[in-house]
Design a protein that fits this description.
The chain has about 220 residues and is an alpha/beta fold. The chain has helices at about 5-15, 15-20, 60, 105-115, 140-145, 165-170, 185-190, 215-220, and strands spanning about 70-75, 85-90, 95-100, 125-130, 150. The longest helix has 12 residues, at about 105-115. The radius of gyration is 18 Å and the shape is globular.
Length: about 220
């Protein structure tokens, strides 16, 4: 008999009185002491000018059928100044990361440009963000490298996709050195290394199972 348990059931038990006593919350993806969104101390996110909704994103980006469609996100850690910008390509799952000193929208836009400027135009087609104010200067990126931005519906960051590498970083499966930046050139330099899929990741595309994610870049 193969019984299954839903994700919601696991979370409900982990945050129940019995689950808390047993210390189950520390084994969850973000190890938060309680469920729910973090409080923002009454501060509102700034409006995003000329915001384009995700339903206008090209079909090839939705279907992960073409290289060059990216997802941008900021990760926050325990220390206030530990902010990591991650950029993941949707087709290959190639992930680039760089440390930011703040959530300033201009600094974030410039960091995106610095990470992707070395790529040819066919490798920077679109980028998708949630509605965080740190992405309010998306037009600065478009002007610099010609890559338009699309935004998830409000309170729906899951529409962006591509959460698996960020989850690995949160869980400690991927180490983060906050004194360094993983650049495009460094990724290409290491692209001769073969990559085996993570044993618990059923979402790894079979076409990418035996290639480093950077290999498709060499074919452009």
């Amino acid at each position: 008999m193969n019984d299954t348990v839903s994700v919601e059931s696991i979370y409900r038990y982990a945050y129940s009185a019995a689950g808390r006593r047993a210390g189950w919350p520390r084994y969850l993806a973000q190890s938060k002491a309680s469920r729910g969104r973090r409080r923002r101390n009454g501060r509102r996110q700034p409006a995003i000018p000329n915001r384009v909704p995700i339903d206008r994103r090209p079909a090839e980006a939705n279907g992960r059928t073409a290289f060059g469609h990216w997802e941008g996100d900021l990760m926050h850690f325990r220390r206030q100044n530990d902010i990591l910008l991650t950029l993941q390509e949707r087709c290959s799952r190639l992930t680039l990361a760089t440390r930011l000193s703040s959530k300033d929208a201009t600094d974030t836009a410039d960091a995106i440009v610095d990470q992707l400027a070395a790529l040819p135009a066919t490798a920077v087609r679109t980028i998708t963000h949630d509605n965080g104010g740190e992405f309010a200067r998306h037009e600065r990126v478009t002007d610099a490298i010609g890559m338009p931005a699309f935004f998830c519906d409000p309170h729906s960051p899951w529409q962006r996709g591509g959460s698996f590498p960020r989850a690995l970083i949160h869980r400690g499966s991927v180490s983060v050195d906050f004194a360094s930046t993983v650049t495009f050139e460094e990724t290409i330099g290491n692209s001769s290394q073969r990559r085996e899929p993570h044993p618990t990741d059923p979402r790894v595309d079979k076409r990418q199972r035996f290639d480093c994610p950077a290999v498709p870049l060499k074919r452009i």
